[in-house]
Specification:
The chain has two helices and seven strands. With about 120 residues, the chain is α+β, with helices and mostly antiparallel strands. Helix 1 runs antiparallel to helix 2. The model is unreliable at about 105-110 (pLDDT under 50).
């Protein structure tokens, strides 16, 4: 199964939200579908970036909570690969290295600029 990460620049509100991201699936059981709800944020104090994952918000006794829609099966670190891919896709598009549709393709070797693939290969090595 091949996946593509599409980056959608933010309209500027809130100011710390940099972009939204979608994961598009090509081939396999999820072919023709996309997973939405990811967002790239500037961290407080400008010390890096963070990715939030799709979640359903609800309230219990007036307290707001969130139910994560994409969760690891065994290891909490399983989300790091998609988080790193989204950040690499955002940085590649921001620097003009990739078009939004090229920004990240998994498995490695599918991004036409190669920048995202090099970054992911380095992080997973």
């Amino acid at each position: 199964m091949e996946t593509t990460i599409k980056i959608i620049p933010s309209s500027g509100t809130p100011a710390t939200k940099l972009a939204e991201a979608e994961v598009h699936f090509d081939g396999g059981l999820l072919s023709g579908l996309k997973l939405t709800g990811f967002a790239v944020w500037e961290r407080r104090g400008g010390a890096g970036r963070n990715v939030t994952f799709p979640a359903k918000q609800y309230a219990v006794n007036g307290e707001r909570r969130a139910f994560a829609l994409l969760r690891p099966i065994e290891h909490a670190t399983a989300q790091n690969t998609i988080r790193d891919a989204i950040l690499a896709a955002y940085e590649a598009q921001e620097e003009g290295d990739c078009a939004p549709t090229c920004a990240s393709r998994v498995p490695f070797g599918e991004c036409t600029c190669g920048r995202v693939d090099r970054q992911l290969a380095k992080e997973t090595a």
